[in-house]
Structures are given as C-alpha cells and as structure tokens.
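Following up on my earlier message about calcium ion. Here are the inputs again, as you asked, copied directly from the submission form:
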Amino acid sequence: MTNQEIAKILYEISAYLEMQDVAFKPRAYEKVAEVVESLSEPLTSIHSKGGIKAIQDVPGVGISIAETIEELIKTGHSKHYEELKKNTPVDLANLIRVEGLGPKKIKALYNKLGVRNLKDLEKSAKAGKIRKLAGFGPKSEENILKGLDFLSRSSGRFTLGAALPLVRETEDRLRGLKGVKKAQVAGSIRRWKETVGDVDILVVSDKAELVMDYFINMPEVGRVLAHGKTKSAITLKNGLDVDLRVLPPESYGSALAYFTGSKAHNVALRQIAINKGYKLNEYGLFKGERQIAGKTEEEIYKKLGLDYVEPELRELTGEVEAAQEHILPNLIKRSDLRGDLQVQTNWTDGEKSIKEMASAAMKSGLEYIVITDHTKRLAMTNGLDERRIVQQMKEIDKVNAGLKAKGLKFTILKGSECDILKDGTMDLSDSTLSKLDVVGASVHSHFNLPREDQTKRIQKAISNPSVDILFHPTGRLIQRREAYAVDMGAIIDSAKKTKTVLEIDAFPDRLDLKDEYIRQCVEVGVKMSIDSDAHTDSHFSVLEYGVAQARRGWAKRSDIINAWPVSKMLKFLK
Ligand code: DGT
Ligand code: CA
Ligand code: CA
Ligand code: ZN
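Thanks, got it. Here's what our run produced:
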C-alpha cells in the first residue's frame, strides 16, 4: 500500500468517527493522515526496517493508529475501518468529496432526509428539501448542487489534447515567477499518453512558498485539495487535477525521472540500481549515503549503464533492455516531417481555401500537402463527385503555378479522402482515382459490421491498386466512440502485402493508429504517415500529437513516408 492509500483510509476513519460524535479521536486520525501524506519514505519501508516501533515514531502516531497502519501494510485491510464502514449506512467516501459536506452535515442529511449516497443527495437537493433543514438553507443547497455537478465533471480522465494547452500555459506562468529556475510537467503528459489522469508539475525554486501561493490562487483553480510547503494539489474549474512539487536542484533529475514514470519503468530502473549496489529514489541515486547522481535524468541513466530513454518509451515494453544493449531506435521528430497527407478544404467540410491551407502548411515548416477532400457518399460534407474533383485538380494546378511564380518551393498534391463503401469498393471510380497523386481511403459508415466482415471490407479496399493510404484505420474517437470491430493484425498483414500505408491520424481525439499498432507496423515494416486531418489553417499544430504517438510506437524517420522528400514519397506509393 502506498502512503497515499493509507492516508485516504485514515481520513475516512476520522470522518466515520466524527459522524459517531466520538471525541478527540477523529482529529488524531486526521492529523496522522496529513503527516503520512507528506512523508518522504514509504510507510512500508519504514515498517520493514523497524516494525511497529518505527511506525510509532511517526509524529502523532499512538499505539492504536500504529496497529491500524501495520495491519494495512500486512494485509491490505483494517478491521476497524471495515467495521466502521459496515456500521455506517452511508457512502461516506463519496459524499465527503462534495465540497462543503463534512461528516456532521452528512449525518444530518442521513438522519433527516435518509440521504445515503450521491444519488440521494442530488434528489433531495433538486426537490428543494435541503434548504428547509436547520443549518443548511437555500445557499448551501445550491452549493451542494454545484459540488455534485463539479464532481461528475471531474471524475474520469482527460484527453491529452484537452489538458496539454492548459498545462503549457501553467508551466510558462510558473517559469515567470520570481526565484523559479525550472518548471516542467512530468507524469503521463510528459510521456504523451493519449489520456491523462492528473497533471504532475515539478518546479525548482528557492522560494517554494511563493510558488505555492501563486499556484493555489491561479484564476482557473476550482478547489484546493492540499496546500503544503513543497507539495500542493488543486482541481481546476474544468475538473482537471494538478499536483505541484517544489524541489531542490540536486534532486531535479531524479524527481523528474520518478514522476515521469511510468511506474513500471521506475520499478525496473530501481531494480537495476539495486543490482549495482545503489539506491534510486526521487531524491537521487545513492551509493550508501553518498549521492552519485540526481541533478539530471541523463546522468542517472548513464550511471545505471543505460542509454537515455525518451519519455514516450518509458512504458516497460522493452525499452530498458534496449537501453542496456544500446539499440534504442532513433525516434522520429516533428522537425523530420516534410509533408501532410490529409488536408480538407472549403471544397467540402474544411473552412479554408486550398491556397490558405497551403500557406498555413508552409508556415508550419512543411514542403508539401495533399488535398484530400471528402467524397460524394458523405453528402453532409458536400463530398466531391467525379466532376467536382476534376475541377479541383485544375484549381490545384492553378494555385501551384501561382506559388511557383512567387518563387515558393511548396507543392500541393492532388488527393482524396475517398469513402469505403459497405462492400469494400470505393466511392469514386477507378479511372478518377488513378488520376490523383495520393488516394486515402476511409471508413465513415457501417461501423457496426461483424468483425470478420469489417476486416474483409477494409482488406478489399486496400487491395485496390489506386488506394495508397488507409486513413484513421480503426475509426475510434478517444472517450467518445470505440474503434469498430476489426482484426488489425490481419489489416497490417494485408497492408504489408499490398504496400498500403497506414495513417497515424494526429487529431488528439483520434490518435488512430494507436501506439501498439504503430509498434506492430514498425516491426513488420509497414510504412505509415502522420497526418493532421486539418479542417482549418490552425490544425497543422496537431501534428506534434501524431509525432508523439508515433514515438510511443517506436517509429523512426524511415517508417514515416511524409518525413521523406516528396519525390521519394510519391515513388513509394502504388
Ligand atoms: P495518470 O496520472 O494516471 O495519467 O498517470 P501518471 O503516470 O501520471 O501517474 P501518477 O500521476 O499516478 O504518478 C506520476 C508518476 O509518479 C508515475 O508515472 C510514476 C510515479 N509513481 C507514482 N506512484 C508510484 C509508485 O508507487 N511507485 C513508483 N515507483 N513510482 C510511482
Ligand atoms: Ca499524472
Ligand atoms: Ca499525480
Ligand atoms: Zn472532414
């Protein structure tokens, strides 16, 4: 059990006891919970070294609390806690998360209105029953409803795309504070995981108090969960939890490594340290009492005999062995991208013209784009039919000529995001498709076909000699729509046989292919593209999410065809 988990149970015991009007004890448990939360050493290790005696040395811990902690460490349970829970008819653990509700109020709500859980609480508040209770009133009823709304919004994970802009802004503002030398996000965000549980920010500063005061008073803060000298935690108004820690410079690298995780990667590093006779934790790498590394991550990896592991790879999926054998891949970078193979315009559901999209792509450092508007089956997007796509090709020739006349080295290629029909045939005729430079094929309908039929449908589409790329291959929308049922192993095999490229759609709510499929493509040699799926001129910025996803899948520049010069890329296509 972690200190955090133990503290949570101690807090709950305190609340149960308070509900029962027990004197003094609730405060004692609460105080210990606070101490446990801020302990630097895990209670499990304190206990394994010095037993229950050592636990009693923790400030505020008497014999009975020490016994509870020991029981939790040994068995993962506490009889005292379970008894309290059983004898309390309400879901205290959740009710207490509603802002402004403490044990005393929860008790009153249960006794007078029979409120047992969040659902009951919402019903009573909406029926206007709470305002009539002594000690509550209309204002507190309103606050309870607000608190409930906030809770429902704040449970669950955020997409990386929803969290990252906020996080960067926060990092920047922290960096601007007096005395701050470094501010860096760690955790799942630094590993570019597609969803984020909470945000972990690290700061190096000699004015920790100032940083904490600023942090808990930021305008976006919805609720302060903890306010300490070196560690604070808040929930933003949008429901995102953010932890902040202030560190001394000599521990910055080890803390960054520790809080970047993943946990499994950390555990493997710690084992390597132990095998070498060292000790690794968030404070540094130690030989006996002496710190031998910790200022930077690089020196820690080096002292452990490992090559530096990029954060995106730290998921314990072979990166530690590869770092030991010095065979980590040279990962693709955003600056390697030269083109974008999926771009929509105002010919269909995009917002901007061909020319505007080209000029935005140029500003993003690209050398070429493929215009891939939708096709006629997607009528709601005003999808192109054979006649209009021929018109569009002429328009592209015109815009290209204009760029050339201005001396600009930029190429707009002709393409399509062509719908795959239910039977695996294409929405545009083969003779039309064969005139285009790059043909992408997409599933936009019949998401619910049986797995075998969906797989065959897509296999048929990519066996079409005009189809170069399978766009957003699994159709998922992160946290909104599951991928359709499809055998991706079989699709990757077929892509290999038919020389079809699989797309990594970089839109943060797609990130499709996901990392594990990218890794499979890399292993069998199926090439991929990283595309923005831009529908307006600001969308090229999402390419960085696609690059990060590709890196999580161990992709190199040679795996990604739009990291190649345009001529090589075109020659590779069917
Ligand atoms: P999340 O927040 O669910 O998206 O994922 P993370 O990876 O950000 O996880 P989080 O916030 O719980 O913890 C941040 C990092 O701290 C995690 O990646 C690794 C490290 N960490 C947390 N708990 C432990 C632990 O019990 N042991 C070790 N070795 N590392 C831990
Ligand atoms: Ca986190
Ligand atoms: Ca965290
Ligand atoms: Zn579209």
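One observation from looking it over: The chain has four domains: 3-154, 158-247, 252-325, 334-572. Hope that helps, and feel free to reply on this thread.
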